[in-house]
Amino acid sequence: MQIPSDAILLRILVGESDRCGSQPLYQAIVLKARELNLAGATVLRGPMGFGQSSRLHTAKILDLSNDLPFVIEIVDAEDKINAFLPILDGMMASGLVTLEKVKIIQYGTNAKA
């Protein structure tokens, strides 16, 4: 798969307890991105965070949260990301979605190395 050097980073912030049907929202997003042949997706789990409610979510033992923050990052060409946004909107009831322009330096393996 070839993606242009000028691309878009789609960053999605959700809670661990957010759902899409019967599965975790972060998982549903990644599986849908894969189904639509986006270049790739990564899920990062945060040990601490807060959102619009200002309620603190933390992984500390004494204050164990069942709703830790998750960040899903997807990078691809602008047209492919823009086509994914309406689908994403239909999957999410809450969360934060951002877009950034990025420059791709390397994607995949480096045959020269």
From TrEMBL:
It comes from the Bacteria. SUPFAM superfamilies: GlnB-like. Pfam families: DUF190. InterPro entries: N-reg_PII-like_a/b (IPR011322), N-reg_PII/ATP_PRibTrfase_C (IPR015867), UPF0166 (IPR003793). Belongs to the UPF0166 family. This is Uncharacterized protein. The lineage of its organism: Bacteria, Pseudomonadati, Pseudomonadota, Alphaproteobacteria, Hyphomicrobiales.
